[in-house]
Design a protein that fits this description.
Helix content: 25-40%
Number of strands: 5
Number of helices: 3
Structural class: alpha+beta
Number of domains: 1
Oligomer: single chain
């Protein structure tokens, strides 16, 4: 079996981009035989975090969303959400409750967060 085509999106850091990313990755997840609703929820949370926390005060920016499936013994789906914003740091004015990352961690097989440079990259693995 060959792997489906990967998804590579560069989206503006605006609310409507969440839906675009969610739909594209959910379609790929369904093609891979994964729980597309769980994957879609995780992608929604991660993209929303990138927009809200990476670019506060409606500062312009972009969010990159990449996903690729892997077949064989280590079958699954790798999703990466990356921004060039402010990185991960607490925001006292945050509109959220801080439940997004724990939710992602509970639904995915693994989550890796890198905010060591400019911006932030969240890599999520869903085992097949």
């Amino acid at each position: 079996m060959t792997a489906p085509e990967p998804v590579n999106l560069e989206l503006p850091a605006i609310a409507s981009s969440v839906r675009v990313a969610r739909q594209a990755i959910a379609t790929l997840a369904a093609t891979c035989g994964l729980d597309d609703q769980a994957v879609a929820l995780c992608v929604s949370e991660a993209v929303t975090n990138a927009i809200v926390h990476g670019y506060p005060a409606d500062r312009p920016g972009s969010v990159r969303v990449r996903a690729r499936s892997e077949v064989g013994d280590s079958a699954g789906l790798r999703v990466e959400i990356e921004d060039d914003g402010d990185g991960m740091r607490p925001r006292p004015d945050s509109p959220g409750l801080g439940l997004g990352l724990p939710l992602i961690a509970s639904m995915a097989s693994s989550v890796d967060i890198d905010s060591s440079g400019t911006g932030c990259r969240v890599s999520i693995w869903f085992a097949g």
